[in-house]
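Sample intake sheet
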Amino acid sequence: MLEDRTEQGLADLAVLAEPVRRRIYLHVLRRADAVSRDEAAKALGIGRSLAAFHLDRLVEAGLLETEFRRLSGRTGPGAGRPSKLYRASPHEVRAVVPERRYEVAAELFAQALSAPNGGSTDLGDVARTYGTELGTEARRRAGQRARPQRRLEALASVLRDAGYVPFERDGELRMLNCPFHELSQRHRELTCGMNLALCEGMLEGANLSSDAARLDWQPGLCCVAIRSDKIAG
């Protein structure tokens, strides 16, 4: 969910707010091989105990992973105990407020370009298909015999999870946030056309009228407006 993604991102940033811990994390992140406590301490010019504290705190937060290995390369009796080493985890540190979903746009663009006749028409097709999946989820959340208002609430819930911030105004469902904001500023026709196709597909997937969605550029709002009366009327 949107709230979960945002809260996790802010929690990650809180862990990295401590200057020494942030420097240690960046040091490990830039290393190809795993880093020992001694190496981290030497690189940052701090004590080994302090380096160990921050490294283990980063492990607890899921930002680093550990492994154990003898650095001498020797084995058998007398080789010494394996050292605890640290490397970056696959976890991404990301907190963007308001929410952006550029990875979704990148995936849709990639699918369109990979099509035999790649182009803006195919982008609309793949965006509509993606939207249909969202619409199917909205239909599931609403239930088989949902009342019109419940269908609207389920649709708004899915939009919220997809990075939009939906609200009702003047008989329409509008969105305060565009997940593809920067792209829309630079490539308006292409991005907003993709966005409209996505929302049309979502309505179709929810067994609602796709013509309830339309383009309507307004300052501070997503380019797509959805007629509430065609959903909850």
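Comment: The radius of gyration is 24 Å. The longest strand covers residues 64-69.
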